[in-house]
Design a protein that fits this description.
mainly alpha; about 75% helix; about 55 residues
Length: about 55
Amino acid sequence: MTRRTTLAPALRYTGYIENHSQGGSRMRPKRMIVRRISVKNLAAADMRQKEEPGV
């Protein structure tokens, strides 16, 4: 059931945080959102983001 989550939610998560971070509403900590998304997806997105600028 958790396999349903792919890279899509991970990419959505980064944009969601950035948009909300600018708003300044810290009612929902990152940890809460991280818990919703599988850690593997987050790690994959993180690695991809670090590789893109590095190239």
